[in-house]
Write a structure and sequence with these properties.
Blueprint (H helix, E strand, L loop, with lengths): L4 H5 L3 H16 L15 H24 L12 E3 L10 H7 L2 E5 L8 E4 L12
Helix pairs in contact: 2-3
The chain binds zinc ion.
Amino acid sequence: MESHAGPWKHQCWEELQEAATDLGDWTSRGGFPPEVQTEDRMGMLWNRAVARAVCELAINICWQVFQSPDGIPHGLPFSLSCVDCDVDSPPNYEAARIAGWTGIEFRPDMQAAIFRGYCPKHIPEPPWVT
Ligand SMILES: [Zn+2]
């Protein structure tokens, strides 16, 4: 079974959407679902349910990214971390922009927050400034 983690980790939304659609269609037609856990295997029914739920999540996330002009899915709980410090997250994307955060990107592969950017104290200087 080829891993579908790559497009998710690397934010390749078109590739993820295609893979999730294909796997969802495959399991809907009675195709065997992939093994979703390598330890403590749970069996085909469990694998099918988890695979379908993950495909649904992935397709929904891709749709939100595609709908957003800034690539920020706005239907998710907001948690933003600074690249350079551990300042508290603003409550939402709009508040972050108003407060002066820049370079905000969607990073669902991170553990502590799903968005990353530069807080107002750590805005990178342009390369021509020394
Ligand atoms: Zn910072």
